[in-house]
């Protein structure tokens, strides 16, 4: 690291603290040449993978778009906003921890379907009908059966 004032590279750390938010390390530094002091922050830099669309184009991952897709499927359904936040966070974490630089939009669609199946079966069917481009009633029936099968064999909610 170089001094921002004189560009000298002999810098001494005077004090190190964790930021109040706990997401950064704050260091007070002093230049060995000009004796000026300055503060630096160290933060974790995480980058989401790029999304490869069906047409081959690449775009940055957007939590806002992800949330919008979930909210559209969940429109007028009795699902708490906190549950949607948890679903968005879960999908984002899966993408981040995958370690991949690029991910197919199909993969994100599958992750959304998993979360919707868990949150609300009707929203799952809504999303699946558009995502899988259902052509006839039989495809709807298959999706309904698939959503219903997951609930079987579990203890009744009480």
From TrEMBL:
GO terms for biological process: negative regulation of DNA-templated transcription. Signal peptide: none annotated. PROSITE patterns: ATP_CONE (PS51161). One of its GO terms (molecular function) is zinc ion binding. Residues 49-139 form the ATP-cone domain. A zinc finger (unnamed) spans 3-34. Binds 1 zinc ion. Keywords: ATP-binding, DNA-binding, Metal-binding, Nucleotide-binding, Repressor, Transcription, Transcription regulation, Zinc, Zinc-finger. InterPro entries: ATP-cone_dom, NrdR-like_N, RNR_NrdR-like. Negatively regulates transcription of bacterial ribonucleotide reductase nrd genes and operons by binding to NrdR-boxes. Belongs to the NrdR family. This is Transcriptional repressor NrdR.
């Amino acid at each position: 690291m170089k001094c921002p004032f004189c560009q000298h590279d002999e810098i001494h750390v005077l004090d190190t603290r964790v930021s109040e938010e706990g997401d950064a390390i704050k260091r007070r530094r002093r230049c060995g040449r000009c004796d000026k002091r300055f503060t630096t922050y160290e933060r974790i830099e995480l980058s989401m993978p790029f999304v490869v669309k069906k047409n081959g184009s690449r775009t940055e991952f957007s939590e806002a778009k992800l949330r919008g897709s979930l909210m559209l499927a969940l429109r007028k359904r009795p699902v708490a906003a906190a549950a949607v936040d948890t679903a968005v966070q879960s999908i984002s974490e899966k993408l981040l921890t995958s370690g991949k630089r690029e991910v197919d939009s199909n993969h994100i669609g599958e992750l959304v379907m998993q979360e919707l199946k868990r949150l609300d079966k009707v929203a799952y069917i809504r999303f699946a009908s558009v995502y899988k481009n259902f052509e006839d009633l039989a495809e709807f029936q298959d999706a309904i059966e698939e959503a219903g099968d997951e609930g079987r064999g579990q203890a009744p909610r009480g």
